[in-house]
Amino acid sequence: MSTKQTIRELGRPAVIMFMAAVLAGLGGAVALGVLIGWSDELRDGGLPIAVMLLVIGTVCCGLWLMPTHVLSLVCGWSLGFPVGAAVALLAATLASPLGYVVGGKLAGPGALAWAEKYPKGAAVCEAITRSSAWRAGWLVGLLRLSPVVPYGATNVLAAAFRVRLGAFIWGTALGLAPRVAAVAALGAGLEKLEMTKPGGWGWLAVGVAATVLVLFSMGWVALNTLRRLAPEQTPTAQAPQAAMDAVQ
Fold this sequence. Notes:
The chain is an all-alpha fold. It is built from 13 helices and no strands. Helix 5 runs antiparallel to helix 6, helix 5 crosses helix 11 and helix 9 runs parallel beside helix 11.
C-alpha cells in the first residue's frame, strides 16, 4: 500500500496524531541525552536556566520534539520543587497553542470524515466542542490527566475538532498540573542527572514505576469521570479512547 493510500485509509488527522506521538518519543530520548550533557550547567539553576528551560520546553513540546515528562524531570532536577514544576507546567501550557495551530494546519479539514471512521475516538471531542467554555475546559483537563493519550496527539485532536482555544489552554494547565508535579518531584529527588553510577537505573526505575502507578490511577479516574460527564450526543459515545482509537 502506498503512502497516499495509507493516509486515505487511516485519515489524515490520525496519521498526524501518530507522528506527533512517535516524534515526541524519539525526540525525548535525544533531548534527555543532550540535557544530561549540560547537567553541570543545569544544576546551577537560577533565573537564566529557568528561562532557557521555559523557551526550550515551549518550542520542543509544541513541535513534538520532547514529551512533557522529560521536560518535567529535567526542570525538577535543575530548579527543584516546586519551582521546576511551575516552569515545566508553564512551558507545557504555552506549548499547547503552538501544537494546536501546527497540528490543525497539518491535519487539515478532514475531521468529520475521520470521526465517521473512528466514532469512539471522536465522541469525547465532539462533546468538548459542543459544551460551554467552562465545561469544555474541564473535559480537556480530564483528557489531559490521562497518561494514555499523548500530549502532542491531544493537541492535534483538539485542533481537528476546533475545540475553543481558550478552554483548551486552561484545561491543559488544569489537567497537566498533577502529572507535571509528580514527575518534577521525582526529578528533584535525583542526586545526579545521569545513570552511569551503579544503582542509578535501579533507583530511577523504582521512582518511575511508583510515579507511573499514581498517574495511571489518576488517569483511570479521569477516564471514568469523562464517561459520566460527556453528553450522549452520538450513539457511539462510549469509552473516551480518543487518540488510541485513532491510530489503531
